[in-house]
Amino acid sequence: MEIFPIKKFQQEQDLGLDKIIYNRGVRATTTADLLEHMDALIFDLAPSKIFINIGSNDIGFNVPENVFLANYDTILQQIKEKLPDTVVYVMAYYPILIFGQ
Q: Which of 42, 48, 49, 51 has the maximal Cβ count within 10 Å?
């Protein structure tokens, strides 16, 4: 959700929040990409909550289902191991239409 302007909302409006929200979404990121950058995108912040929405690009880029699911499992396991007190919210996938198939 790279383009969601949460930083702008926090700067310009009183959202009544006692914590900072970071948007670490990067366009066209796959589960494999996230695994390569877990420290910078997640662990360096040591967040108390993570709302994760990854996998749509894997589907759109035709990553084999077994690879995508294994990567997703690894992502969640690493978070559980390194940030055991962090609450993880797994967000739903959007339906996608792949043209030409």
A: 42
